[in-house]
Amino acid sequence: xxxxxxxxxxxxxxxxxxxxxxxxxxxxxxxxxxxxxxxxxxxxxxxxxxxxxxxxxxxxxxxxxxxxxxxxxxxxxxxxxxxxxxxxxxxxxxxxxxxxxxxxxxxxxxxxxxxxxxxxxxxxxxxxxxxxxxxxxxxxxxxxxxxxxxxxxxxxxxxxxxxxxxxxxxxxxxxxxxxxxxxxxxxxxxxxxxxxxxxxxxxxxxxxxxxxxxxxxxxxxxxxxxxxxxxxxxxxxxxxxxxxxxxxxxxxxxxxxxxxxxxxxxxxxxxxxxxxxxxxxxxxxxxxxxxxxxxxxxxxxxxxxxxxxxxxxxxxxxxxxxxxxxxxxxxxxxxxxxxxxxxxxxxxxxxxxxxxxxxxxxxxxxxxxxxxxxxxxxxxxxxxxxxxxxxxxxxxxxxxxxxxxxxxxxxxxxxxxxxxxxxxxxxxxxxxxxxxxxxxxxxxxxxxxxxxxxxxxxxxxxxxxxxxxxxxxxxxxxxxxxxxxxxxxxxxxxxxxxxxxxxxxxxxxxxxxxxxxxxxxxxxxxxxxxxxxxxxxxxxxxxxxxxxxxxxxxxxxxxxxxxxxxxxxxxxxxxxxxxxxxxxxxxxxxxxxxxxxxxxxxxxxxxxxxxxxxxxxxxxxxxxxxxxxxxxxxxxxxxxxxxxxxxxxxxxxxxxxxxxxxxxxxx
Amino acid sequence: xxxxxxxxxxxxxxxxxxxxxxxxxxxxxxxxxxxxxxxxxxxxxxxxxxxxxxxxxxxxxxxxxxxxxxxxxxxxxxxxxxxxxxxxxxxxxxxxxxxxxxxxxxxxxxxxxxxxxxxxxxxxxxxxxxxxxxxxxxxxxxxxxxxxx
Lengths: 667, 149
Ligand code: FES
Ligand code: FES
Hints:
The complex is a heterodimer. Chain A is of the alpha/beta class. Chain A folds into 3 domains: 5-199, Aldehyde Oxidoreductase, domain 4 (2-Layer Sandwich); 214-275 and 319-394, 2-Layer Sandwich (Aldehyde Oxidoreductase, domain 4), CATH 3.30.365; 410-663, Aldehyde Oxidoreductase, domain 4, CATH 3.30.365.10. In chain A, a hairpin with a 2-residue loop joins strand 6 and strand 7. In chain A, helix 3 runs parallel beside helix 4 (108-135) and helix 16 packs across helix 17. By secondary structure, chain B is mainly alpha-helical. Chain B folds into 2 domains: 16-70, Beta-grasp domain (Ubiquitin-like (UB roll), Roll), CATH 3.10.20; 79-142, DNA polymerase, domain 1. Chain B contains 5 helices and 3 strands. Chain B has helices at residues 16-23, 79-86, 96-109, 115-122, 132-142; strands at residues 42-45, 48-51, 65-66. In chain B, strand 1 (42-45) and strand 2 form a beta hairpin. The longest helix of chain B is centred in the C-terminal third of the chain and has 14 residues, at 96-109. Chain B is globular, with a radius of gyration of 15 Å. At the A-B interface, helix 6 and helix 16 of A face helix 1, helix 2, helix 3, helix 4 and helix 5 of B. The complex binds FE2/S2 (inorganic) cluster (FES) (2 copies). One FE2/S2 (inorganic) cluster binds next to loops of chain B. One FE2/S2 (inorganic) cluster is lined by residues 31-34, 36-41, 51, 53 of chain B.
């Protein structure tokens, strides 16, 4: 959209454009040159106040359950003094919202939230300007509250003030903002703005969407990853009424008026595939990582190996996309964390200009880093193009469990030494494949050596909530306990001895105090563990109490205390919700989640074969939020996940003396 | 069906879930697994929480079906829906319609469940976002009055 088109789309009123050159540069921005981008390049967000008083905010971020819609609404309410009901947040629509790199890396709160506050603050000043102009009063006599500007006995709604205007203001992203201590709504808990649509079932996820004349599609996947199609006999499927078969090279799909019919048709395809020899299975993969390390493997001999299994995101809403071609323009509705990334994938695939592709992201049934790309969107668009009707491609759970990418597995080798007083004197840490996030120890260790080794992966792998920080923290914090044990120091004392960073010390002490670490009483079959870390601008410490069955070794996590500090707290209730969610999710990867694979196939291909945490697995969770009003707010969706696995592993050791050096701990 | 008779002319072998969603446009019941593992597809059949992904549509002929859309009269919330809102018991929300109907059924057969009974009653429901403690809180708040406000 061009600047002049804003009012054509929305009618009169006022518009604030937030010029964020720095963000555009840092994120690589939209592609420059070539096709004209939909919204001016450097715009980070924009906001419109219409003649009805509705405030519409446009951001390329998406809502995947992390509550961005609510926290960004709060930002507007705070600055503009409007009731939340009059704010409409348009998110993740490549035709309407500014370019955004994606919703991941806990960037919404640190980057988008202040941007939207700035835009809202600028709009407030414009409304005050309008009142000054219209009423010829002193600016200082004006008050603004509840969507109205008043002066003495005069009062006007935002809509009345904006009436007949076509006023655009562009502001830089560097305008100063009110300090956290002065926040009114931000920093308090605002209920989820679309909660009602969720509890009534009215909200439409991608899985739920429909278009007239739409067909449901299925794709024929090879029986092994990477297998090539030798021959296809589609006669039986083609003979089914209403069924269309698409066959383009190795890509084979069917479309039918009903889901069940599409499933029957794809099952009726007779295909021959050339078998492949798989490089590794889920047990041999750790050796494979070392063999394929691009920079060579570590030389040191005294390293202790830990292993990390591949795990799946299992978003409860499997990937889904609805694609429609109309007059050479493609529109795709899909749940993704990167609407603009998916648009690029589609642009490349079909060789059409950017303005011919629109990606719309309905609030999505979660992602956890799993919905970064446009697999379902590409399939739906390709099939829709071939059959000439809108096409729905809803992945089944089995497709989700086998065709999506995974959190990388990893081999981590570690060695270290501690002096008698507990000071760590040596530290060497090698991560193969799982990734570099959270690799750096937050403790003060002179001369430490930490290295990430890129390797080959037999499975498709990608982002996941917290990335490799979970793996790296698991190993580091488990090994911290091994070192503490070697010098017979209490795990908390040992950590405090080596932690100079005040914020790290604070969370450790806060978690330990709340947990009652010092006064803990050991009884048979019970164990206590502690772990801490730093990631994405936030500090976390986690204490866990576990019960271990002496016969079966089965572990039940009884209690978890999480101290979390991520700068100034924006919405305490939602922050607690994120902390609890991170613990719940982290528990699965800690205890039992593991992708089992071999011969180019995933064996854990259904929910009945892949255990995820349930009500009965939940410990009592207590969170301590350290609110640092003097520090910028960091994102919170990821960091709290990193401490739970090592806290549990350490607690198991405390309970039965067994050091488990793998994730999942209960494999 | 949600308080009144509804007829559909479909193959009796199809799942209740897909008929609800694709033919009756009631998409509040969600697909999560298709194999009875997650309970996102829960609806009430004669008051009993039922996984619609495992239920053939032919098997519910003549029965009383309540989906999330029909739980409360238009514009009103059922006390369980309100309790979920009050407890902020949702993140992405995908599991929530199923959870709410599961909770309605639980409170219907046991108006005063303790924590252990809530866990047993709700354990078939998966929330991948991990809102379990919040859902517990929502149900706890209603325990003792059978889900009535
Ligand atoms: S979709 Fe029915 S139980 Fe999961
Ligand atoms: S709120 Fe996302 S699955 Fe439950």
